[in-house]
Write a structure and sequence with these properties.
2 domains, transposase activity, alpha/beta, Transposase_11, Transposase, elongated, DNA recombination, 8 helices, five-stranded mixed beta sheet, two-stranded antiparallel sheet, about 240 residues, DNA binding, 7 strands, Transposase Inhibitor Protein From Tn5, Chain A, domain 1
């Protein structure tokens, strides 16, 4: 077996046992019978050895499998392995990686006043136009198809709360409903102005959590007067 492949497989084994990968592959129906491409090989090939997998032809990828994995498979057979089940399998692997990271990195921070520091941000990029039905883009001079990824991250533990995908046209402001579900007492929320909604900030406060946010230029700040002056016939009445 290729020396580099052995190293990568060992790295995978440190996080995922072959038993777990087999369980995930069967759960997602990626593996339903004996196949030349195992769950372990498919994961390593897509994750570590094929950074240009989206731009190379199936013939090139088949040749790469033969050279690096000593695995003979036709371009057509390889193409058939990239389906809804393989997508679900890779998603399950990613989700399990996040859960494993939560357990490994999580540790108490006694000197801080916050139980978690939650950072939320998004990124978006264009996709080939054939993905328009799944992920709509802005069109025009921009791509017809685009994807937006929303990520919630705990700065203290280094763990991911969730990672969601939407149309490229989706507004960040609509994602605050999801963010609110993950907010707990003692949290500190950090997000840019794309997520700025006064009602959402009030909900954070009501849960006993905290936030740091910039202010929109149209926002007016008032200092509440506990003893406001009262008026009678247009004149202020002084209250002692």
């Amino acid at each position: 077996m290729h020396k580099r492949l052995k190293i990568l497989i060992n790295n995978i084994k440190e996080v995922f046992s072959l038993k777990l990968l087999d369980k995930l592959s069967k759960k997602t129906k990626f593996v339903r019978r004996r196949s030349k491409i195992t769950a372990e090989t498919f994961l390593a090939f897509n994750t570590f050895l094929s950074e240009d997998i989206c731009s190379k032809s199936l013939s090139t990828l088949s040749a790469r499998l033969a050279a690096q994995y000593n695995l003979e498979i036709s371009p057509q057979a390889l193409n058939e392995r990239f389906n809804e089940y393989s997508v679900q399998f890779m998603r399950e692997v990613f989700n399990n990686m996040m859960l494993s990271q939560n357990k490994i990195l999580s540790h108490p921070h006694r000197k801080l006043n916050f139980s978690r520091i939650l950072v939320n941000d998004s990124t978006s990029y264009g996709l080939p136009s054939k993905f328009y039905n799944e992920f709509k883009g802005s069109g025009g001079s921009s791509s017809k198809a685009a994807i937006k990824i929303q990520l919630q991250y705990d700065l203290l533990s280094g763990s991911f709360l969730c990672c969601d995908t939407y149309n490229g046209t989706a507004s960040d402001g609509k994602y605050v409903e999801v963010m609110d579900k993950y907010t707990e007492a003692g949290d500190l929320r950090l997000a840019d102005l794309g997520y700025y909604k006064l009602d959402y900030l009030k909900q954070i406060d009501a849960k006993g959590a905290f936030f740091i946010s910039k202010l929109k230029s149209t926002t007016v700040i008032y200092k509440k007067n506990p003893n406001p002056p009262k008026k009678l016939k247009g004149r202020n009445i002084k209250i002692n």
